[in-house]
Amino acid sequence: AIKLSNRCRLIKPSPTLSLSAKAKEMKDAGIDVISFSVGEPDFNTPEYIKASAHKAIDANFTRYTNNAGIPELRQAICEKLLRDNGLKYSPKEILVSPGAKAAIVNSLIAVCDDKDQVLMATPYWVSYPYQVALANAEPVYIPTCEEKGYKIQPADLEKAIKENPCSKVLIMNSPSNPTGTVYTQAELSDIAEICIKYNILVISDEIYERLVYDDAKHISIASISEEMKQRTIVINGVSKAYAMTGWRLGYAAGPGDIISAGGMVQEHTTSCVNSITQYACVTALKEEDDSIEKMRVEFARRRDFLYEELKKLPHITCFKPQGAFYIMPGIKWYLENNNQNIKTSDDFCAKLLDKYYVALVSGNSFGMEGTVRFSYANSIENIKEGLNRFASFLAELA
Ligand code: PLP
Q1: pLDDT above 80: residue 86
Q2: Cβ–ligand 1 contact at 237 (below 6 Å)
Q3: What positions does the domain Aminotransferase class I/classII large occupy (predicted)?
């Protein structure tokens, strides 16, 4: 047999995708599963965007495009970054990729060499460690805790950099998957100061930018100062804000040399994003209607409901998310106090799915044992029913 590369042997399937797949299998077998494991809006893509894609096909806009993205789209992205984030970029500093995922991987490959270290908070989004491995670099984890809102503390960042002298990149994700934490301007300033001091590049994954609640405000770390902008790659896309996960479009904005190196990686692996998607995304960004805000308002309503209900459950701890569509309650008490040999979050989730047909993602998948993640990209009725089953499971354990 042919030996796989070291890089590929480090990579495992995405636990969130495999859990969704198992839940779907059970559903297909006729079992009434409630899935809180999905990472995508349950809404359809807004009509005005779909109409634009039809137009692109009818106009035969179906060929390879410029590798970095069609000029109209890169221009529209520059306008968006200026309007929403106060960031001034030129189209040369924008790379359009098939999803924020690809935008992150292109950026990591553009800057990482063997042995370079990439810092990130735990809990982290499940793909980051593998994306780092694909770039031949090594992940370094900075622990955070519920009491401090799952936010990286400046002293912990500085300590991690000092202990890991090959630290080159910090991945930031605000609003965060899985915790829903949103960093304030002051917190980002403190992090920026350390990154500047130690010459760290920040890959700032802002894919959940539009989904923030109450008085939380999304701030891009690149907008902290011109010096910080020079060492930040802003990652964003249309998947979450515009309910366009299957269209595959994300982008990176940053210093021209890194963006063009990422563009080279893309040129030889992908060529370009689907032309129809690109065309429709110009419309998505430039002609936004009120359907986008309506989705946000609905997510906010579900978050409030889910949070309030979780808080009522005995021995469950819960950080109130300010953004994205996830909530990550703590279940430690139940791991320490049950008579069913449930010792880990993985055991907990497996049993919950088998017995009560509720799919959650184990905190272990995010490097955070003792927690579980709910996605509230689901209807209020399903959330209600899922919570009833979750409560019955807890009662059985206690
Ligand atoms: N970044 C985070 C934190 C995510 O949760 C996701 C999707 O789950 C992505 C990036 C990927 O987005 P895209 O669909 O644009 O590749």
Answers
A1: yes
A2: yes
A3: 32-389
